[in-house]
Amino acid sequence: MSLVRFATAEAVFETFPELSQKIGTSPNERSPIDFLRSMINAGKLEDAVTFCAYVLPRREAVWWACRSARVAPGRIAEERAPALLAAEAWVSDPDDEHRQAALEAGTKGHCDDPLTWVALAAGWAGGFLVSSPYPAMPMPQYMTARATRTAILMSALSANWEHRPAYLQARIAEGIRLAEGEA
Q1: Cβ-count burial of 123 within 10 angstroms (0-12 exposed, 13-18 middle, 19+ buried)?
Q2: Tens digit of pLDDT at every position of the chain (183 positions)
Q3: Does residue 1 lie in a domain region?
Q4: How many Å apart are CA 45 and CA 51, to the nearest integer?
Q5: CA separation for the pair 36, 19 (Å, rounded)
Q6: Residue 1 CB neighbour total at 10 angstroms
Q7: I need a labelling partner for 123 at 20 to 30 A (CA). Which of 57, 81, 85, 159 fits?
């Protein structure tokens, strides 16, 4: 069962106007999955990662970021693991307590660490923006997509230059499987 909540790629761009600044390919009336595949075929892998992050529901997007971090080349250092574990806990049980724990882990992390962004993707999947002294606003839907995109693209940097396209293609294929409800 497909988890894609958009009928066309154009609808995704209408829902998230910032995509037109991040993706060089113009949207069309194709399904989001067909649009993703056309970007892959054109070699626009970073654009495909970006688009997929916005197409997936938030929980699946966070899971995608977690999986991408787990399979990235290199070892996850013990001091960095709590961010990933907090995000995975939220995916397993997406309650506010787990979301807050992921948000806390993400805000304590370093901005150059993809695991920080994995935790922020979970932490920004709900709740409120605190904008004191003004009333809190619900967390914008695009925040999880932004953090997911950042986490996956930063994880790709751990691969050797010649292996990055293969890493990104595998991550996009996994994102498509998640979107199609197969994973």
Answers
A1: buried
A2: 778 889 999 999 999 999 999 998 888 899 999 999 999 999 999 999 999 999 999 999 999 999 999 988 877 777 778 999 999 999 999 999 999 999 999 999 999 999 999 999 999 999 987 767 788 889 998 999 999 999 999 999 988 899 999 999 999 999 999 999 886
A3: no
A4: 10
A5: 13
A6: 5
A7: 159
Enclosing domain of residue 127: 9-179
Looking at the domain assignment, is residue 32 inside a domain? yes
Asked if the structure places residue 3 within a domain, the reply is no
Residue 2, in any domain of the structure: no
- Residues 6 or more apart in contact with residue 39 via CB below 8 angstroms: 23, 25, 45, 47, 48, 51
CB-CB neighbours of 57 under 10 Å: 16
The total of structural domains in the chain comes to 1
Q: In whole angstroms, what is the distance from residue 171 CA to residue 159 CA?
A: 13
